[in-house]
Specification:
The chain is mainly α and about 600 residues long. The chain has three domains: about 130 residues, Alpha-Beta Plaits (2-Layer Sandwich), CATH 3.30.70; about 190 residues, no CATH class; about 140 residues, no CATH class. The chain is about 60% helix and about 5% strand. It has a four-stranded antiparallel sheet. A hairpin with a 2-residue loop joins strand 2 and strand 3. Helix 21 runs antiparallel to helix 22.
């Protein structure tokens, strides 16, 4: 029956390094497995056979390290108490000089108890706690990878400071600056890595600013002490104007700069003071590191304002700084990002154009059906003949339009016009959807999908040009007739479809959040509508959420759309500021500036 031997050992001083604490259990286990000398134990009973006692061994062990020491548990395979006690005491003496990391350790307590049977997992000792990793996962990365990742995180956080609305946080490569700093000051090794790479980036970014020839005042975005950030900005620019060291590489110049700055402003977050206990030291260290990182991010955001406007990913931002100390992999990753963005931009433009055409066709069917008879709309490559429009977003917009108009209106249109075939395609699904809304008694039914199947027949992707155009016109004419039977229905349906045009047309862009996608799509819709008919574009503009009022800007907008219809550069210059969340002061009337 084994004995459990519990040893509690204390370090001569608290261990500051979290990584060193994490390594303690593994170090002690390795020493235990290597073995140690145990002094002989006199036999208490001379009648005990020598071979009955045998050589005691370890059947289980458990080690937990913490900042002040370690708790060690041994399950010794012996039924002699003195043997177990002697093994525990000898282990204490052995560990105290077995490794440099344990020099000076002392034994606070030694306790021996009996154990009867192992648990279900075969453990003789109770688990002190769940076995955790010896190192944080990031510590397994190579140093150059850690440096690159730290630079990536800083670059992404700088981009966050340039977007105080927070919209970019819902896009790929987004980093919340406050969240990053909050995690870095508590999670090893990121505080160390971010602080180390901050100096390198400050020098590289300030050199880029000087080469550009424009120096901006400190950004007001971000947290932390503004005065401290201003001091750091001045120190960085002074180093660029008149170097204070003999080093010519960004890394060493940045290291010396930050080290001097931390000493001058009591920010030596990694310097231990003898007059502080562990808790006080940790609290002060985190506060100092947080202050340093916030000041550094705000300075980086200030000196790279022009870079951030054009570099759309952290890798592109880092590559634009053109630092001599940049890892060669940064340039490769930036090229990959650039190629990906170029391809996705082309795809996004095509998707936005098709969705805009779909919205314009449906609104024309609702408010200006005469425009749909224009021969140019059915010409090869035009909206009615383009399968990327008719078999794509027009599917979705027509789907919502039919649902809003309702089955009764569609039935009435079929009865009063030569649209029976088209109406009969969609009516069963519409009736089923309306019944499902009233009584969802068949959870397996999917009439919404049935409606899409009907639209597949009415807007085919693989038919002749003339038949595709004819079927599209018939579907649009069905919507025109059904909605037009009720005086206010066309305007009401048109408004509802434009409230969230991206969702209506099922537009999902690469790397965009929904708010930006909606703004971009509205720009495309207004441009496409203006090219077809300025009055139709004016009806879209009147339904913009910010303009649905008696605001005189509606009249101003309509006038401008008439004036610049078809002139794409002028139209884009007009629409872009209009569709921002809040037009900057002085942007109205925009056409006054365009006409100069």
């Amino acid at each position: 029956m084994p004995y459990a031997v519990w040893l509690e050992m204390t370090a001569p001083a608290p261990i500051d390094d979290a990584a060193a604490v994490a390594q303690l259990p593994g170090l002690i286990v390795d020493l235990l497995k290597a073995g140690w000398d145990v002094p002989a134990v006199p036999r208490l009973d001379d009648d005990v056979e020598d071979d009955a006692a045998g050589e005691p061994g370890l059947v289980d062990l458990s080690v937990v390290g913490y900042a002040d020491g370690a708790m060690i548990g041994l399950a010794v395979d012996t039924d002699v108490l003195e043997v177990a006690t002697t093994i525990g005491a000898s282990l204490c003496r052995h560990l105290a000089d077995a490794a440099p990391a344990l020099l000076g350790w002392t034994t606070d307590s030694l306790r021996v108890t009996t154990v009867t049977t192992p648990d279900a997992d075969g453990n003789w000792l109770p688990r002190l706690r769940e076995d955790g990793p010896r190192f944080p996962v990031a510590e397994h990365l190579r140093d150059d990878l850690l440096e690159m990742e730290a630079q990536f995180l800083l670059a992404a956080a700088v981009r966050d400071l340039h977007d105080p609305t927070g919209e970019s946080r819902r896009t790929p490569n987004a980093v919340d600056a406050a969240d990053l700093i909050g995690g870095a000051v508590t999670q090893h090794p990121w505080g160390r890595e971010l602080a180390s790479e901050l100096g390198t980036l400050l020098i590289a970014a300030a050199e880029h600013e000087t080469a550009a020839g424009t120096r901006r005042p400190l950004t007001g975005h971000g947290n932390g002490d503004t005065a401290l950030a201003q001091h750091l900005l001045s120190a960085v620019r002074a180093e660029i104007d008149q170097p204070a060291t003999d080093y010519d590489d960004d890394r060493m110049r940045g290291h010396v700069l930050l080290d001097d700055f931390m000493q001058c402003h009591d920010l030596r977050w990694n310097h231990r003071s003898d007059d502080l206990d562990d808790a006080a030291y940790q609290l002060r260290s985190r506060a100092q590191l947080r202050a340093l990182l916030w000041a550094g991010l705000r300075v980086l955001a200030t000196v790279t304002h022009d870079v951030t406007e054009h570099a759309r990913t952290p890798w592109l931002w880092l590559d634009a700084l053109d630092s001599d100390d940049a890892n060669p992999a940064v340039e490769i990753l930036a090229e990959i990002d650039d190629e990906h963005l170029t391809a996705s931009d082309e795809e996004d433009d095509d998707e936005l154009t098709a969705a805009a055409d779909a919205h314009v066709l449906i609104r024309a069917a609702l408010l200006r059906p005469d425009l749909l008879e224009t021969p140019a709309l059915g010409a090869p490559g035009a909206a009615l003949s383009d399968v990327t429009v008719t078999a794509g977003p027009l599917h979705h917009v027509a789907h919502d339009a039919l649902l809003t108009v309702g089955a009764d209106a569609i039935q009435a249109a079929a009865d009063t016009a030569d649209l029976t075939t088209t109406a009969n395609r969609v009516l069963p699904a519409l009736r089923a959807i309306e019944a499902l809304r009233d009584d969802d008694s068949d959870p397996q039914a999917d009439p919404y999908n049935d409606l899409y199947d009907a639209l597949d027949h009415l807007l085919p992707a693989d038919d002749t040009h003339d038949r595709r155009v004819r079927l599209a016109r018939e579907l649009l004419r069905l919507i025109t007739t059904a909605a037009g039977a009720t005086p206010d229905m066309p305007a009401r349906v048109a408004l509802e479809l434009f409230l969230d045009p991206a969702a209506t047309a099922s537009v999902l862009l690469t790397g965009d959040n929904n708010h930006r996608t909606v703004r971009r799509l509205r720009t495309c819709i207004l441009s496409a509508a203006a090219a077809l008919d300025p009055a139709l574009a004016g009806s879209f503009a009147a339904d913009l959420p910010a303009l649905r009022s008696t605001d005189p800007r509606v009249r101003e907008l309509t006038t401008t759309l008439h004036a610049f219809a078809g002139v794409q550069p002028l139209m884009d210059a007009f629409l872009t500021p209009l569709l921002r969340p809040t037009p900057p002061p002085g942007t109205w009337p925009p056409n006054a500036r365009l006409r100069k």
